[in-house]
Specification:
With 399 residues, the chain is mostly beta strands. The chain has no helices and 36 strands. The strands form nine sheets. A five-stranded mixed β-sheet has the order 1-36-35-32-33, with no helix packed on it. The chain has a four-stranded antiparallel β-sheet with strand order 2-29-28-27, with no helix packed on it. Strands 3-4-5-6 form a four-stranded antiparallel β-sheet, with no helix packed on it.
Amino acid sequence: MFAFHSSLGQQGWTNISANLPPSVTQVNDAFFIGDTGWITGMTTGLVNFVGYTTDGGNSFTLQNFPANSGLIQQIFMRSTHEGYCVTSRTSIGVNVYHSTDPQNGGGTLMPGSPGVSLYGISFPPLPDTIGYCSSGAGDVYRIGTHVTFDAHITSDALTSICFPVSSDEGWVLGGTTIRHRIASGWVIDQNYNNLNSLASVFFKDNTHGWATGDGGSVIYTTDGKNWVIEFIDPGQRTFNDVYFSDVLQGWVVGQGGLIFHTTDGGLNWDPAAGDITNSNMMLISVFATPDQTVYVTGTIADTIGVLLKYTSTSGTGEPEMQNFSIYPNPCSDVLYLQFNQPEKNFQISVLNLYGEEVKRIENTNAQQQISMGNLVSGAYFLRMENDKQIIMKKFCVVR
């Protein structure tokens, strides 16, 4: 098992629900890019909102949504300057909203929004411009400049969808159905046991995927097709969401304040945050940033909004291990990695703030030179991994 030396080096769960305005009754989803983040939910009187923070959830500005917009289900940010969300309510129907000014709200209804309940939304990494959303009627819709019908999958509600790499390949699920999209369309090539109703699916690439649902079940695939049961909660309570920051570090959350965490891709799951959760909490979603800062959303009895956060107790997210250094930081064209003690067989990768790998290199020298030539200005993470440990360190590129 890997030892992880970053923000997971020290346990640090906190309940930051008090940072929400008191009118918030439910938090449905969260999406963060560094300390800048957005949450969705409802306030007293069933008023939808998007909450915006620039300080990691210490404070929020609420952006109320248009009347009769439906319940905001999921939010997906393409960058700090562009985002989408889907809404649903049976009596109202639903729409896809798009914002190019998410710091100040400004969401507008997308042309072609189907007016049926939508639950999941996913985009592959930029520069791909096509995304997908899933509906309560078992349909999938394509999101470009307009929203268009893509396919009818099942009579079950499709509650979750994921396109991890490109718009040519993705997965959708709901009820007891999992479907796989390839370039030619949606295909029935998924091999899995007939489980209870599935709620959430997450892929980190086109082979490693996880899904959760009723009965406290977590299922897993390593080839994008064949699924096996990986974990079942002893209490068989429902897991509502799953998220992995890489192929090793993952979380599931659910009914009764459940949070489980894995550091080995799901071979072993351990309960987490037991000191700040309770059986009255319904935890709805989980999101993790590349430096392993984790946000969990939910509600207590549909009357009190819940927002939990995991960081290192030091709050730095920097490695505890000090046998290496990187310089200069910030850098422009070249970043140097210097090991103070001999280290072998490290795989080195550079991640952007979305956790997407943008560069990879095998380390063979005590000093490693990493070219930054194709990277735009901004913050990144250096990820180093061998058979004993994973180390992450933040750096900046300035042009």
